Amino acid sequence: MTDRFITQFSPSVSRSYIDSLNAQHGVIILDSLSTDVQNLFILKLTGAVDKDVLVTANQYYENLSIDYSHPDFVVEVELHSYIPNDSFFQYQWSYENTGQIQGKIDADVDASLAWEICKGDTTLKVAVLDTGFEPHEDLGTLAQGYDVAGANPWHAVEDWDPTPGNQPWSAHGEACAGLIAATQNNFIGISGLAPLCQIVPIKIWTDDYYPGPQYNTTDIIARAFYMASALGAKIVSNSWTFRSFSGDCTEYYDVVTQAINYFARSKPSNPEGGVVIFSSGNGSLNCVTFPAYLDSVIAVGASDSIDGIWSYSNGGSALDLVAPSGKTALTTQLQGDIYTIDLMGERGYNPIMTDSLDANGNQNYTGKFGGTSAACPQVAATAALIKAQWWRLYPGSPLYSMQVKKIIENSAEDTVFVVGRILPGKDRVTVMAD
User: Fold this and answer.
1) CB-based contacts of 179: which residues, under 8 Å, 6+ apart?
2) What CA–CA distance (Å, rounded) separates 302 from 325?
3) Whole-model pTM above 0.85?
4) Each residue of 236-245: pLDDT tens digit?
Protein backbone atom coordinates (compact mmCIF):
# COMPACT_ATOMS: atom_id res chain seq x y z
CA MET A 1 0.00 0.00 0.00
CA THR A 2 1.25 3.52 -0.80
CA ASP A 3 0.78 6.80 1.10
CA ARG A 4 -1.74 7.90 -1.52
CA PHE A 5 -5.44 7.31 -1.97
CA ILE A 6 -7.83 7.90 -4.85
CA THR A 7 -11.08 9.78 -4.34
CA GLN A 8 -13.98 10.47 -6.65
CA PHE A 9 -15.91 13.50 -5.36
CA SER A 10 -19.42 14.02 -6.69
CA PRO A 11 -19.33 16.22 -9.81
CA SER A 12 -21.51 18.83 -8.07
CA VAL A 13 -19.01 19.34 -5.23
CA SER A 14 -17.09 22.63 -5.41
CA ARG A 15 -13.33 22.87 -5.40
CA SER A 16 -13.46 25.07 -2.30
CA TYR A 17 -15.27 22.33 -0.38
CA ILE A 18 -12.71 19.76 -1.54
CA ASP A 19 -9.81 21.97 -0.45
CA SER A 20 -11.45 22.58 2.94
CA LEU A 21 -12.02 18.87 3.56
CA ASN A 22 -8.45 18.06 2.55
CA ALA A 23 -7.08 20.66 4.95
CA GLN A 24 -9.05 19.14 7.84
CA HIS A 25 -7.50 15.73 7.20
CA GLY A 26 -3.96 16.86 6.40
CA VAL A 27 -4.30 15.89 2.76
CA ILE A 28 -3.10 17.50 -0.47
CA ILE A 29 -4.11 16.91 -4.06
CA LEU A 30 -1.21 15.16 -5.76
CA ASP A 31 -2.75 14.97 -9.23
CA SER A 32 -5.95 14.80 -11.20
CA LEU A 33 -6.41 11.29 -12.53
CA SER A 34 -8.18 12.35 -15.70
CA THR A 35 -9.02 15.63 -17.39
CA ASP A 36 -12.16 13.97 -18.77
CA VAL A 37 -13.58 12.99 -15.37
CA GLN A 38 -14.50 15.79 -13.01
CA ASN A 39 -13.32 15.75 -9.37
CA LEU A 40 -11.30 12.53 -9.59
CA PHE A 41 -8.07 13.05 -7.64
CA ILE A 42 -5.01 11.27 -6.31
CA LEU A 43 -4.62 12.48 -2.72
CA LYS A 44 -1.61 12.25 -0.42
CA LEU A 45 -1.17 12.51 3.35
CA THR A 46 1.11 15.36 4.37
CA GLY A 47 1.86 14.08 7.88
CA ALA A 48 0.26 17.16 9.45
CA VAL A 49 -2.40 14.92 10.97
CA ASP A 50 -1.49 11.63 12.65
CA LYS A 51 -3.44 9.22 10.42
CA ASP A 52 -2.68 6.35 8.11
CA VAL A 53 -3.89 6.19 4.55
CA LEU A 54 -6.41 3.37 5.08
CA VAL A 55 -8.20 5.18 7.92
CA THR A 56 -8.26 8.44 5.98
CA ALA A 57 -9.59 6.80 2.80
CA ASN A 58 -12.37 5.16 4.83
CA GLN A 59 -13.32 8.51 6.42
CA TYR A 60 -13.57 10.05 2.95
CA TYR A 61 -15.61 7.06 1.76
CA GLU A 62 -18.21 7.74 4.50
CA ASN A 63 -18.67 11.32 3.31
CA LEU A 64 -21.93 11.62 1.35
CA SER A 65 -20.32 14.06 -1.12
CA ILE A 66 -17.85 11.36 -2.22
CA ASP A 67 -18.69 8.52 -4.60
CA TYR A 68 -15.74 6.34 -3.61
CA SER A 69 -12.36 6.53 -1.93
CA HIS A 70 -9.69 3.85 -1.50
CA PRO A 71 -5.92 3.55 -1.09
CA ASP A 72 -3.75 3.56 -4.21
CA PHE A 73 -3.03 -0.13 -3.84
CA VAL A 74 0.06 -1.83 -5.23
CA VAL A 75 -1.28 -4.68 -7.32
CA GLU A 76 0.30 -7.55 -9.20
CA VAL A 77 -0.67 -7.61 -12.86
CA GLU A 78 -0.69 -10.92 -14.71
CA LEU A 79 -0.42 -11.10 -18.48
CA HIS A 80 -2.87 -13.66 -19.78
CA SER A 81 -0.64 -15.48 -22.22
CA TYR A 82 -1.45 -18.91 -23.59
CA ILE A 83 1.37 -21.44 -23.56
CA PRO A 84 0.52 -24.64 -25.48
CA ASN A 85 1.73 -28.10 -24.49
CA ASP A 86 3.33 -28.94 -27.85
CA SER A 87 6.64 -30.67 -27.09
CA PHE A 88 8.85 -28.40 -29.24
CA PHE A 89 7.10 -25.12 -28.42
CA GLN A 90 9.82 -24.32 -25.89
CA TYR A 91 12.18 -23.94 -28.87
CA GLN A 92 9.84 -21.73 -30.94
CA TRP A 93 11.51 -18.49 -29.93
CA SER A 94 9.94 -16.56 -32.80
CA TYR A 95 6.55 -17.11 -31.14
CA GLU A 96 7.65 -16.82 -27.49
CA ASN A 97 11.14 -15.42 -26.97
CA THR A 98 12.20 -15.90 -23.36
CA GLY A 99 15.88 -15.60 -24.19
CA GLN A 100 16.14 -19.37 -24.64
CA ILE A 101 18.81 -19.07 -27.36
CA GLN A 102 20.61 -16.06 -25.89
CA GLY A 103 17.99 -13.92 -27.57
CA LYS A 104 16.27 -10.73 -26.52
CA ILE A 105 13.18 -11.33 -24.41
CA ASP A 106 10.02 -10.41 -26.34
CA ALA A 107 11.80 -10.25 -29.72
CA ASP A 108 8.95 -12.35 -31.06
CA VAL A 109 5.49 -12.05 -32.63
CA ASP A 110 3.63 -12.12 -29.28
CA ALA A 111 1.90 -15.35 -30.18
CA SER A 112 1.05 -16.42 -26.63
CA LEU A 113 -0.76 -13.14 -25.98
CA ALA A 114 -2.67 -13.36 -29.25
CA TRP A 115 -3.82 -16.92 -28.55
CA GLU A 116 -5.72 -15.68 -25.51
CA ILE A 117 -7.93 -13.84 -28.01
CA CYS A 118 -7.90 -15.80 -31.25
CA LYS A 119 -6.36 -18.90 -32.81
CA GLY A 120 -7.84 -18.55 -36.26
CA ASP A 121 -11.02 -19.80 -37.91
CA THR A 122 -11.69 -23.30 -39.22
CA THR A 123 -13.33 -21.85 -42.33
CA LEU A 124 -10.44 -19.55 -43.19
CA LYS A 125 -8.15 -20.94 -45.90
CA VAL A 126 -4.51 -19.95 -46.33
CA ALA A 127 -2.87 -21.08 -49.56
CA VAL A 128 0.83 -21.92 -49.54
CA LEU A 129 2.48 -21.94 -52.98
CA ASP A 130 5.60 -24.06 -52.73
CA THR A 131 7.35 -27.41 -53.28
CA GLY A 132 4.47 -29.69 -52.39
CA PHE A 133 2.67 -31.00 -49.33
CA GLU A 134 1.54 -34.21 -47.71
CA PRO A 135 -0.36 -35.28 -44.58
CA HIS A 136 1.57 -34.83 -41.35
CA GLU A 137 0.92 -35.97 -37.78
CA ASP A 138 1.01 -32.34 -36.61
CA LEU A 139 -0.76 -30.52 -39.43
CA GLY A 140 -4.36 -31.68 -39.26
CA THR A 141 -6.40 -32.07 -42.42
CA LEU A 142 -5.19 -30.22 -45.50
CA ALA A 143 -7.83 -28.56 -47.64
CA GLN A 144 -8.14 -29.57 -51.29
CA GLY A 145 -4.85 -28.78 -52.98
CA TYR A 146 -3.46 -28.73 -56.50
CA ASP A 147 -0.28 -29.46 -58.43
CA VAL A 148 0.23 -26.73 -61.02
CA ALA A 149 3.78 -27.69 -61.94
CA GLY A 150 3.38 -31.33 -62.87
CA ALA A 151 6.51 -33.35 -63.56
CA ASN A 152 8.06 -31.00 -66.10
CA PRO A 153 8.01 -27.19 -65.79
CA TRP A 154 8.10 -26.71 -69.55
CA HIS A 155 5.14 -28.99 -70.29
CA ALA A 156 3.19 -29.17 -67.05
CA VAL A 157 0.58 -31.88 -66.57
CA GLU A 158 -1.61 -30.56 -63.78
CA ASP A 159 -3.45 -32.72 -61.27
CA TRP A 160 -5.02 -32.59 -57.82
CA ASP A 161 -2.11 -34.25 -56.03
CA PRO A 162 0.41 -31.76 -54.52
CA THR A 163 2.59 -34.49 -52.97
CA PRO A 164 6.24 -33.35 -52.75
CA GLY A 165 9.23 -35.13 -54.19
CA ASN A 166 11.91 -37.11 -52.36
CA GLN A 167 14.69 -34.53 -52.24
CA PRO A 168 15.63 -33.06 -48.84
CA TRP A 169 14.54 -29.59 -49.97
CA SER A 170 11.15 -30.94 -51.06
CA ALA A 171 10.12 -30.26 -47.44
CA HIS A 172 10.26 -26.48 -47.94
CA GLY A 173 6.51 -26.13 -48.47
CA GLU A 174 5.67 -28.47 -45.59
CA ALA A 175 7.89 -26.42 -43.27
CA CYS A 176 6.16 -23.19 -44.29
CA ALA A 177 2.70 -24.69 -43.81
CA GLY A 178 3.60 -25.89 -40.32
CA LEU A 179 4.52 -22.40 -39.16
CA ILE A 180 1.06 -21.24 -40.16
CA ALA A 181 -1.26 -24.00 -39.04
CA ALA A 182 0.45 -26.87 -37.22
CA THR A 183 -1.91 -28.42 -34.69
CA GLN A 184 -1.77 -26.86 -31.24
CA ASN A 185 -2.01 -28.45 -27.80
CA ASN A 186 -1.66 -32.07 -28.92
CA PHE A 187 1.48 -32.80 -26.84
CA ILE A 188 3.65 -33.33 -29.93
CA GLY A 189 5.69 -31.24 -32.32
CA ILE A 190 5.20 -27.51 -32.72
CA SER A 191 2.36 -25.02 -32.75
CA GLY A 192 1.27 -23.08 -35.80
CA LEU A 193 0.60 -19.38 -35.31
CA ALA A 194 -2.96 -19.72 -36.66
CA PRO A 195 -3.63 -23.36 -35.74
CA LEU A 196 -7.38 -23.33 -36.44
CA CYS A 197 -6.99 -22.24 -40.06
CA GLN A 198 -6.88 -24.53 -43.09
CA ILE A 199 -3.93 -24.87 -45.45
CA VAL A 200 -4.63 -24.96 -49.19
CA PRO A 201 -1.53 -26.72 -50.59
CA ILE A 202 -0.55 -25.65 -54.09
CA LYS A 203 2.55 -27.18 -55.62
CA ILE A 204 4.40 -24.91 -58.03
CA TRP A 205 7.84 -26.54 -58.15
CA THR A 206 8.68 -29.82 -59.82
CA ASP A 207 10.14 -32.75 -57.87
CA ASP A 208 13.65 -32.02 -59.14
CA TYR A 209 13.67 -28.65 -57.37
CA TYR A 210 17.13 -27.92 -55.99
CA PRO A 211 18.73 -25.16 -53.90
CA GLY A 212 19.74 -22.18 -55.96
CA PRO A 213 18.00 -20.89 -59.10
CA GLN A 214 14.85 -22.88 -59.79
CA TYR A 215 13.49 -22.58 -63.29
CA ASN A 216 9.77 -22.39 -63.93
CA THR A 217 7.44 -20.69 -66.36
CA THR A 218 5.47 -17.53 -65.71
CA ASP A 219 2.20 -19.18 -66.76
CA ILE A 220 2.58 -21.83 -64.03
CA ILE A 221 3.18 -19.15 -61.39
CA ALA A 222 0.21 -17.12 -62.61
CA ARG A 223 -2.04 -20.18 -62.77
CA ALA A 224 -1.26 -20.93 -59.11
CA PHE A 225 -2.81 -17.65 -57.96
CA TYR A 226 -5.94 -18.20 -60.00
CA MET A 227 -6.18 -21.71 -58.55
CA ALA A 228 -5.70 -20.40 -55.00
CA SER A 229 -8.63 -18.08 -55.55
CA ALA A 230 -10.77 -20.81 -57.07
CA LEU A 231 -10.08 -23.08 -54.07
CA GLY A 232 -11.36 -20.44 -51.66
CA ALA A 233 -8.11 -19.16 -50.17
CA LYS A 234 -8.31 -15.71 -48.56
CA ILE A 235 -4.57 -15.44 -47.92
CA VAL A 236 -1.62 -16.73 -49.91
CA SER A 237 1.88 -17.26 -48.50
CA ASN A 238 4.87 -17.29 -50.87
CA SER A 239 8.31 -18.02 -49.44
CA TRP A 240 10.07 -17.33 -52.73
CA THR A 241 10.60 -14.60 -55.33
CA PHE A 242 12.05 -14.40 -58.83
CA ARG A 243 15.81 -14.13 -59.13
CA SER A 244 17.09 -10.66 -59.95
CA PHE A 245 19.65 -11.06 -62.72
CA SER A 246 20.22 -7.31 -62.77
CA GLY A 247 20.78 -7.02 -59.03
CA ASP A 248 18.53 -3.95 -58.90
CA CYS A 249 15.20 -5.83 -58.77
CA THR A 250 13.80 -4.33 -61.97
CA GLU A 251 12.43 -7.62 -63.32
CA TYR A 252 8.69 -7.49 -64.06
CA TYR A 253 6.26 -9.97 -65.62
CA ASP A 254 2.78 -8.81 -66.62
CA VAL A 255 1.07 -12.19 -66.48
CA VAL A 256 2.24 -12.83 -62.91
CA THR A 257 1.36 -9.30 -61.78
CA GLN A 258 -2.11 -9.63 -63.27
CA ALA A 259 -2.70 -12.93 -61.46
CA ILE A 260 -1.52 -11.58 -58.11
CA ASN A 261 -3.64 -8.46 -58.45
CA TYR A 262 -6.61 -10.63 -59.37
CA PHE A 263 -6.21 -12.61 -56.16
CA ALA A 264 -5.84 -9.41 -54.12
CA ARG A 265 -8.76 -7.45 -55.51
CA SER A 266 -12.41 -7.56 -54.50
CA LYS A 267 -14.54 -9.88 -56.65
CA PRO A 268 -17.83 -11.77 -56.30
CA SER A 269 -16.12 -14.93 -55.02
CA ASN A 270 -14.15 -12.93 -52.42
CA PRO A 271 -15.54 -9.42 -51.84
CA GLU A 272 -12.82 -8.64 -49.28
CA GLY A 273 -10.02 -9.45 -51.70
CA GLY A 274 -7.11 -11.74 -50.91
CA VAL A 275 -4.03 -10.96 -48.81
CA VAL A 276 -0.75 -11.72 -50.62
CA ILE A 277 2.48 -12.17 -48.65
CA PHE A 278 5.94 -12.73 -50.18
CA SER A 279 9.35 -13.18 -48.64
CA SER A 280 11.71 -10.39 -49.70
CA GLY A 281 14.54 -12.73 -50.74
CA ASN A 282 17.88 -13.88 -49.33
CA GLY A 283 20.24 -12.10 -51.71
CA SER A 284 21.57 -9.32 -49.41
CA LEU A 285 20.19 -6.81 -51.91
CA ASN A 286 19.15 -3.24 -51.15
CA CYS A 287 15.93 -3.90 -53.02
CA VAL A 288 13.06 -6.39 -52.92
CA THR A 289 12.82 -8.86 -55.80
CA PHE A 290 9.77 -9.40 -58.00
CA PRO A 291 6.94 -9.89 -57.25
CA ALA A 292 7.41 -8.98 -53.58
CA TYR A 293 7.78 -5.28 -54.42
CA LEU A 294 4.27 -4.99 -55.91
CA ASP A 295 1.88 -2.63 -54.11
CA SER A 296 -0.67 -5.42 -53.65
CA VAL A 297 1.88 -7.55 -51.77
CA ILE A 298 3.20 -7.53 -48.20
CA ALA A 299 6.98 -7.97 -48.52
CA VAL A 300 8.60 -9.66 -45.51
CA GLY A 301 12.25 -9.65 -44.52
CA ALA A 302 13.93 -11.59 -41.71
CA SER A 303 14.92 -10.47 -38.21
CA ASP A 304 16.94 -12.39 -35.65
CA SER A 305 16.40 -13.27 -31.99
CA ILE A 306 17.76 -9.95 -30.74
CA ASP A 307 15.67 -7.80 -33.10
CA GLY A 308 18.35 -7.24 -35.72
CA ILE A 309 17.71 -7.62 -39.45
CA TRP A 310 19.67 -10.51 -40.97
CA SER A 311 22.32 -9.37 -43.42
CA TYR A 312 21.05 -11.79 -46.09
CA SER A 313 17.54 -10.30 -46.01
CA ASN A 314 16.72 -8.15 -49.04
CA GLY A 315 15.66 -4.64 -48.03
CA GLY A 316 14.95 -1.25 -49.49
CA SER A 317 11.89 0.97 -49.65
CA ALA A 318 9.57 -1.81 -50.89
CA LEU A 319 10.19 -3.93 -47.77
CA ASP A 320 7.09 -3.61 -45.60
CA LEU A 321 8.29 -5.27 -42.39
CA VAL A 322 10.31 -8.16 -41.00
CA ALA A 323 9.52 -11.28 -39.01
CA PRO A 324 11.72 -13.49 -36.80
CA SER A 325 13.78 -16.14 -38.55
CA GLY A 326 17.05 -18.02 -38.46
CA LYS A 327 20.01 -18.04 -40.76
CA THR A 328 19.58 -18.73 -44.44
CA ALA A 329 20.37 -21.93 -46.32
CA LEU A 330 23.93 -22.66 -47.44
CA THR A 331 23.84 -25.20 -50.27
CA THR A 332 21.79 -28.14 -48.94
CA GLN A 333 22.58 -27.58 -45.25
CA LEU A 334 20.08 -25.40 -43.43
CA GLN A 335 21.61 -23.12 -40.83
CA GLY A 336 18.52 -21.62 -39.21
CA ASP A 337 17.01 -22.23 -35.79
CA ILE A 338 13.29 -22.11 -36.54
CA TYR A 339 11.39 -25.22 -35.49
CA THR A 340 8.69 -26.50 -37.79
CA ILE A 341 7.39 -29.68 -39.36
CA ASP A 342 9.34 -31.77 -41.86
CA LEU A 343 8.21 -34.49 -44.22
CA MET A 344 7.33 -37.58 -42.23
CA GLY A 345 10.01 -40.19 -41.63
CA GLU A 346 13.29 -40.41 -43.54
CA ARG A 347 12.36 -37.92 -46.26
CA GLY A 348 12.86 -34.18 -46.12
CA TYR A 349 15.44 -32.06 -44.35
CA ASN A 350 16.36 -34.30 -41.44
CA PRO A 351 18.32 -37.07 -43.21
CA ILE A 352 21.11 -34.52 -43.80
CA MET A 353 20.70 -32.76 -40.46
CA THR A 354 21.24 -35.24 -37.65
CA ASP A 355 21.82 -32.41 -35.17
CA SER A 356 18.71 -30.47 -36.09
CA LEU A 357 16.70 -31.46 -33.02
CA ASP A 358 17.34 -32.57 -29.49
CA ALA A 359 18.44 -36.05 -28.45
CA ASN A 360 15.07 -37.50 -29.42
CA GLY A 361 16.04 -37.14 -33.08
CA ASN A 362 12.40 -36.94 -34.23
CA GLN A 363 12.71 -36.84 -38.02
CA ASN A 364 9.16 -35.63 -38.53
CA TYR A 365 10.37 -32.14 -37.56
CA THR A 366 13.27 -29.84 -38.28
CA GLY A 367 14.90 -27.31 -35.98
CA LYS A 368 16.98 -25.52 -38.62
CA PHE A 369 14.56 -23.78 -40.93
CA GLY A 370 15.36 -20.14 -41.68
CA GLY A 371 15.80 -17.36 -44.20
CA THR A 372 13.03 -15.04 -45.32
CA SER A 373 11.23 -18.30 -46.15
CA ALA A 374 10.54 -18.79 -42.44
CA ALA A 375 9.58 -15.15 -41.91
CA CYS A 376 6.88 -15.01 -44.59
CA PRO A 377 4.51 -17.68 -43.18
CA GLN A 378 4.45 -15.94 -39.81
CA VAL A 379 3.07 -12.80 -41.43
CA ALA A 380 0.57 -14.89 -43.41
CA ALA A 381 -0.58 -16.43 -40.13
CA THR A 382 -0.80 -12.97 -38.56
CA ALA A 383 -3.08 -11.91 -41.40
CA ALA A 384 -5.19 -15.00 -40.74
CA LEU A 385 -5.58 -14.16 -37.05
CA ILE A 386 -6.56 -10.59 -37.90
CA LYS A 387 -9.21 -11.71 -40.38
CA ALA A 388 -10.53 -14.43 -38.07
CA GLN A 389 -10.92 -12.04 -35.16
CA TRP A 390 -12.58 -9.44 -37.39
CA TRP A 391 -15.07 -12.00 -38.65
CA ARG A 392 -15.90 -12.92 -35.08
CA LEU A 393 -16.32 -9.35 -33.85
CA TYR A 394 -18.00 -7.88 -36.94
CA PRO A 395 -19.88 -10.65 -38.76
CA GLY A 396 -21.00 -9.57 -42.19
CA SER A 397 -18.71 -6.51 -42.20
CA PRO A 398 -15.87 -6.84 -44.74
CA LEU A 399 -12.20 -6.38 -43.91
CA TYR A 400 -10.50 -5.64 -47.22
CA SER A 401 -7.06 -6.94 -48.12
CA MET A 402 -5.38 -3.53 -48.06
CA GLN A 403 -6.90 -2.90 -44.63
CA VAL A 404 -5.27 -6.10 -43.37
CA LYS A 405 -1.96 -4.92 -44.79
CA LYS A 406 -2.32 -1.57 -43.04
CA ILE A 407 -3.23 -3.20 -39.71
CA ILE A 408 -0.16 -5.45 -39.89
CA GLU A 409 2.14 -2.55 -40.74
CA ASN A 410 0.68 -0.24 -38.09
CA SER A 411 0.84 -2.83 -35.32
CA ALA A 412 4.44 -3.87 -36.00
CA GLU A 413 6.94 -2.99 -33.28
CA ASP A 414 9.54 -0.39 -34.27
CA THR A 415 12.41 -2.05 -32.44
CA VAL A 416 14.41 -3.62 -35.26
CA PHE A 417 17.90 -2.42 -36.07
CA VAL A 418 20.05 -3.37 -39.05
CA VAL A 419 22.92 -5.83 -38.89
CA GLY A 420 25.81 -5.80 -41.33
CA ARG A 421 24.35 -3.54 -44.04
CA ILE A 422 23.46 0.10 -44.54
CA LEU A 423 19.69 -0.08 -44.76
CA PRO A 424 16.82 1.73 -43.07
CA GLY A 425 15.47 -0.11 -40.04
CA LYS A 426 12.18 -1.95 -40.39
CA ASP A 427 9.41 -2.84 -37.94
CA ARG A 428 9.01 -6.40 -36.69
CA VAL A 429 5.61 -7.99 -37.05
CA THR A 430 3.59 -8.61 -33.90
CA VAL A 431 0.12 -10.08 -33.65
CA MET A 432 -0.71 -7.85 -30.68
CA ALA A 433 -0.87 -4.09 -31.20
CA ASP A 434 0.27 -1.85 -28.34
Assistant:
1) 190, 192, 193, 338, 340, 369, 374, 377, 378, 381
2) 6
3) no
4) 999 999 988 8
